[in-house]
Amino acid sequence: MENTTQIEPAQNQAFLSSQQLLDHWQAHRRLTRRLIEAFPADQFFTYSLGGMRPCSELIAEILGMTGAGMEGVRSGRWDAFQTMDASSKDEVLAQWDQVTAQIDTIWPQIPTSRYQEVDLAFGLYEGTMYWFILYLIDNEIHHRAQAYVYLRTLGIEPPAFWDRS
Amino acid sequence: MENTTQIEPAQNQAFLSSQQLLDHWQAHRRLTRRLIEAFPADQFFTYSLGGMRPCSELIAEILGMTGAGMEGVRSGRWDAFQTMDASSKDEVLAQWDQVTAQIDTIWPQIPTSRYQEVDLAFGLYEGTMYWFILYLIDNEIHHRAQAYVYLRTLGIEPPAFWDRS
């Protein structure tokens, strides 16, 4: 009798594990933290280009969406974005570290089946939870890169993109 | 007798499938294509901020690294970055579409086991192949976001980040 085991097409097999994606994200977060550290304190809340938001507001969006978003992924409860309450870079970095720890705490509590579930993130954005988590990561890369340009125009060399140590 | 089946920790289970990651990337590539279309033709090869490369060179890096990189992922043969040979936006867009098709062709030829293999990408960057593919995607998001700032300072509204249609 021939072996009739169904072979799953390669396209439907895992690209990476949940733990690997977490590690990838936290590596990006280390780079974003380094960007905040490199930004001049006296420009962090004010400097902008082309009418865009200053670095502080770009980081505030990342922080607020990530904290509340990960809670939504875990529990299906979507609270409003958390607001960043900080008037210095040190306070921003402290909140950054809190959200980093929050991600590490929440991640193992997310059932694997949840990644493929469709939910209405923040009551607004419908999609699978893996899509939403990728959105959080991509949005961080996108806004951080804009702050790279701010730094360059301020004459400051940004942290190396490839270095996630 | 108790059921002693080993339950794999959630952290080691799949975050998303290979096909889902491909779809995610191609959605990003549609946005990058729209960014190229939105960039003024007379500024595409020249305009820059802070001593950075013009939009044409940011896109050339994405194109060259992606084309040669995907061939390396498939075959383990790492040729030099492909260079972009284009003197107009239309030529850039034509090369963009070639690489889009190349990714779609190569993707199903990559054995699933390859994602977890370690290789020396371009003879320089050691890592797993899933890490390298994520690097290609992240690098595209990073450079595209910098071109967003160029557009803003040129007084042009960039394509919406969330729209990947």
TrEMBL record, chains A, B:
The cross-references to SUPFAM superfamilies, in alphabetical order and at most eight, read: DinB/YfiT-like putative metalloenzymes
Give one Pfam family, short name only.
DinB
UniProt GO molecular function: metal ion binding
Cross-referenced InterPro entries = DinB, DinB/YfiT-like
Q: Does the keyword Metal-binding apply?
A: yes
Keywords of this protein's UniProt record, alphabetized?
Metal-binding
Q: Which Gene3D superfamilies match?
A: dinb family like domain
Question: What residues does a divalent metal cation bind to?
Answer: 143
The answer, when asked if Transit peptide is one of the entry's keywords, is no
Family, similarity comment = Belongs to the DinB family.
Give the protein name, as stated in the record.
Damage-inducible protein DinB
Q: Which organism is it from?
A: Spirosoma sordidisoli
